[in-house]
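Subject — a protein and its fold

Tokens — whole-number codes for backbone shape
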Amino acid sequence: MDFSPTKNMVLALYRALAYQIYCRLHGLSLRVVDNAKSLGSAISSGRYRNAAIMAKRLTAFKARKSQFQKLRRMVGARRTATVLRTGGTAALVYGQGNTGVSCSMLQSQRAAVAAASVPGGSGELGLTLIVADGSMSGKADPAFAAHEAPIVKWAEAVWEGWLPRPALSKLVDVAVIDLANRRSPWGMVKGPASAFVASAWRLGWVVHSSTAVSTDLGHCIDFTRDSPAMTQRYVQQSVWRWRWRRVEARHRHLVQDAGGHGAFIQPVFKLLSGRMA
């Protein structure tokens, strides 16, 4: 089969190394680049994050805002929320495990999804997205994917042995040193290891090593023993608490005990779904 004349690229930590590879592969249409997209995921040479793919997807999602609002007028809020969860948000957050999602990008993604889920105006961002979820298992909020993708992918890497254990440990050790005590750690995120560490810290988790973390409630997770599916469940629960804490910071009357519990939202979901007796 013929190689594509436009999709073959060489990336390396140093451009000199990339050019050496390029020169040895005679007869192929190659380009030396610093970032690219592979199977929908952003990749880079490792010297900085490739956030351009996320920015393009955010722009494309914002362009569809009027379509979601038109659909809402035609079929109602509940069906529009279903389309938003299964199609709109999924396209927006695809392939973020390699790079993670910075706090500023996550804020932009959440604001765009919230704007698409309501007919107009603005309100409490967290509550708008909680309602857009539609249920306790719904995940319209991009915050779920922003944390699940890097943390659960790292758990899979340990569980399935994608790299030797010492290599994984070295990557996380270096990431912790690079990100520690920085006002904006996302400026130093360059790959899956640092994306995993920064995402875990944002949820209030403690990263003990490449294989062990503690959640915001102190639950210990061992990636060598606990499956990625269990890790994903812990991440989802932590995102729920993370969202409610942000809402509670603005509405102090909702705070219970240490916070993160939020309001009893299940009856609202039942009412919106039409199942309320």
In short: The chain has two domains: 1-33, 37-277. The first strand starts at residue 9 and ends at 10. Residues 37-277 form one domain. The mean pLDDT is 85.
